[in-house]
């Protein structure tokens, strides 16, 4: 199901307390290249409200939420699938990503001193150590992951079993896949 009717919220304007570091607008991601032509931070209105609450809860703990990805064009999802065709980590383009529905976010946390909290693996590291409850992590990284989960749950998000950074609204699959709202660089033509 596709829909053009949903007006997405530009959270870069509506959530000034949110730090934005769009990983797919640069090369620091699984593809090793920029995918997004425009660094736009869009979300379904329901996801934007949930994220606003999570930002507030993070601030109560003296932390800043860092956004790595929000709405994702379907073409970008295809490029991610080509880079990692493993359904444990990347949704097949035939099924559609919850990011492409505007109801999923990739996030991390920054402390008061400006450091990104150690989560025990990097963003887009598609390995078992990136699973939220991986048993072999140092205690500090486990605590940071639990804290991130609590902050996101307070907003109404739920995590997934394979990526500590990914959160989505409950019943995310029930939201329609959206048409691409901004362009992507073709392989080999990223700026």
From TrEMBL:
Keywords: Cell wall biogenesis/degradation, Dipeptidase, Hydrolase, Metal-binding, Metalloprotease, Protease, Zinc. The keyword Hydrolase applies. The record marks 72 as: Transition state stabilizer. GO terms for molecular function: D-Ala-D-Ala dipeptidase activity; metallopeptidase activity; zinc ion binding. Its EC number is 3.4.13.22. Its cofactor is Zn(2+). Zn(2+) binds at residues 99, 106, 166. InterPro entries: A_A_dipeptidase, Zn_M74/Hedgehog-like. SUPFAM superfamilies: Hedgehog/DD-peptidase. Gene3D superfamilies: 3.30.1380.10. Transmembrane segments: none annotated. The active site is at residue 163. One of its GO terms (biological process) is proteolysis. Binds 1 zinc ion per subunit. It comes from the Bacteria. The keyword Manganese does not apply. It holds the Pfam family Peptidase_M15. It catalyses: D-alanyl-D-alanine + H2O = 2 D-alanine. Catalyzes hydrolysis of the D-alanyl-D-alanine dipeptide. HAMAP family: A_A_dipeptidase (MF_01924). Belongs to the peptidase M15D family. This is D-alanyl-D-alanine dipeptidase. It comes from Sodalis ligni.
């Amino acid at each position: 199901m596709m829909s053009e009717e949903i007006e997405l919220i530009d959270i870069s304007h509506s959530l000034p307390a949110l730090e934005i570091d769009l990983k797919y607008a640069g090369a620091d991601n699984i593809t090793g290249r920029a995918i997004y032509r425009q660094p736009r931070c869009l979300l379904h209105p329901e996801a934007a409200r949930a994220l606003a609450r999570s930002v507030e809860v993070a601030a109560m703990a003296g932390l800043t939420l860092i956004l790595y990805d929000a709405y994702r064009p379907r073409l970008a999802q295809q490029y991610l699938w080509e880079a990692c065709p493993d359904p444990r980590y990347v949704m097949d383009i035939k099924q559609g990503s919850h990011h492409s529905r505007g109801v999923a976010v990739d996030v991390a946390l920054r402390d008061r001193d400006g450091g990104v909290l150690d989560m025990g693996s990097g963003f887009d590291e598609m390995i078992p150590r990136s699973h939220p409850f991986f048993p072999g992590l140092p205690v500090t990284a486990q605590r940071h992951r639990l804290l991130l989960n609590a902050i996101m749950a307070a907003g109404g998000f739920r995590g997934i079993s394979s990526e500590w950074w990914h959160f989505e609204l409950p019943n995310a699959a029930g939201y329609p896949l959206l048409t691409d709202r901004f362009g992507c660089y073709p392989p080999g033509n990223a700026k």
